[in-house]
Automatic annotation (TrEMBL), chains A, B:
Protein name: Phospholysine phosphohistidine inorganic pyrophosphate phosphatase
Keyword field contains Metal-binding: yes
Taxonomic source organism: Melopsittacus undulatus
Enzyme Commission code: 3.6.1.1
Similarity annotation: Belongs to the HAD-like hydrolase superfamily.
NCBIfam families according to UniProt: HAD-SF-IIA-hyp3
Described purpose of this protein according to its UniProt entry: Phosphatase that hydrolyzes imidodiphosphate, 3-phosphohistidine and 6-phospholysine. Has broad substrate specificity and can also hydrolyze inorganic diphosphate, but with lower efficiency.
GO molecular function: inorganic diphosphate phosphatase activity; metal ion binding; phosphatase activity
Primary site of residence: cytoplasm
Catalytic reaction(s) noted: diphosphate + H2O = 2 phosphate + H(+)
Cofactors (names): Mg(2+)
Length: 266, 266
């Protein structure tokens, strides 16, 4: 990592599993050294943007939680799937049926939801009930050409009380039932990383992604021409290091170590 | 259909959507003419076996319900996934974690379920909760080599109160989350049709499958060398007639019509 770190001008940070481990109760626990690491990046003059697939809350609510955990973070610094999806829905005149977390619903407040012509699926957590999944399915299968928009395609994530199925698993269930392919907004979709890079004003060759997800963080960022580092925190598992398709540019034990190496090269 | 029906010596009948439309409350409504059609097949001397992916109840309970709806049916006449799965589990020394309907659990009574080394997923219906899906996922992801056994791979089915996601959708969710391929017991798996044919003592060339599922009934039976007819009842939808891969040997409006044509050729 030291070999190429001096070219880095901007840092994209995943949040869950890198800054903190989220809790099933909506809370969570900071990962040791991460709050200090964020402050050090900001003090160094490197550009910084948070790039998350978090869809369990509005950005406002999510940022407030992270501030409460001691992180220096603000809403404009966060690239998240729901606002990106809203832009797409407006552009295409789509009226969503929402299968999302209750706390995310306000992000879609401006959109007409009567007589839906698409389904938007996020990490609905406790809202992934048998009844809600059947309802979303019936809306989709009733369309002449079903439109399914997924806020991410993650397989699972780690909360303080254990691993949980992520939106990608439920997306696959609806894709299979309706014989349709979802349009994914969020990591690893290229336009999503590009909008995070645009927010920093840094080209991909000068940017680094730091995340715990081998496919969505590391693989997605590399597809955009960025360097990408996997932390050994969050959902990281040792077998990730034998992934058949994705090889990170480096491994670090945690965010603090990544920032140590980055700042030594400045 | 009349052209080849005279070669038929044995009939495999799907149950849900052919004999009756099941109800979300565990009941259901017979499809007009179906009970009489079953009696006519039996009176004709044709061999008959019911071949179902039903996994919401033990065969005993399911057969009792159908008898209550007026059908002439008995347990040995029914080929169903759970008994087939039990045989496989015993042969391979597998201890299942069950994600199935409460009423199916007795089918697995003889098996050791402590310290599970596989997950068995059926149409769990109301048991497809967020918590139960996470639990099955954690059991799977904790195995060195996850073993997932699915009692069918249906996409959805129709109950009296609407379409419902079937086991295949939830199977896909777990497959994706754990990067594993499920072993499917039940239609459209070839060994399953073969065991139904063996129960009748009729070779595939002299057998007909009558079902409402274009892929699992019609496509699966044809793969085994049988003729297969799709009824326009149950989950049938007009767009099934444009299916890209599967073309039934005939369409009929319902089971009664299929039996009319069959018996005219005897």
């Amino acid at each position: 990592m030291a070999a190429w770190a001096r070219a880095v001008r901007g840092v994209l940070l995943d949040i869950s599993g890198v800054l903190y481990d989220s809790g099933g109760d909506g809370g969570g626990a900071p990962i040791a050294g991460s709050a200090e690491a964020v402050r050090r990046i900001k003090a160094s003059g490197l550009k910084l943007q948070f790039c998350t697939n978090e869809t369990q809350a509005t950005r406002e609510k999510f940022v407030k939680k992270l501030q409460g955990l001691g992180f220096d973070i603000s809403v404009p610094e966060v690239t998240a799937p729901a606002p990106a999806a809203c832009r797409i829905l407006k552009e295409r005149g789509l009226r969503p049926h929402l299968l999302v977390h209750n706390d995310l619903v306000p992000e879609f407040a401006e959109l007409d939801k009567a007589n839906p012509n698409c389904v938007v699926i996020g990490d609905a957590a406790e809202n992934f009930t048998y009844a809600n999944l059947n309802e979303a399915f019936r809306v989709l299968i009733g369309m002449e050409k079903p439109v399914l928009i997924a806020l991410g395609r993650g397989r699972y994530y780690k909360e303080t009380d254990g691993l949980k199925l992520d939106v990608g698993a439920y997306m696959k269930a609806l894709e299979y039932a309706c014989d349709v392919e979802a349009e994914v907004v969020g990591k690893p979709a290229k336009p999503f990383f590009e909008s995070a890079l645009a927010a920093m004003g840094v080209p991909p060759q000068q940017a680094i992604m730091i995340g715990d997800d081998i496919v969505n963080d590391v693989g997605g960022a590399q597809q955009c021409g960025m360097r990408a580092v996997q932390v050994r925190t969050g959902k990281y598992r040792p077998c990730d290091e034998n992934h058949p398709h994705v090889k990170p540019d480096a491994y670090v034990n945690n965010l603090a170590e990544a920032v140590d190496i980055l700042l030594q090269q400045l």
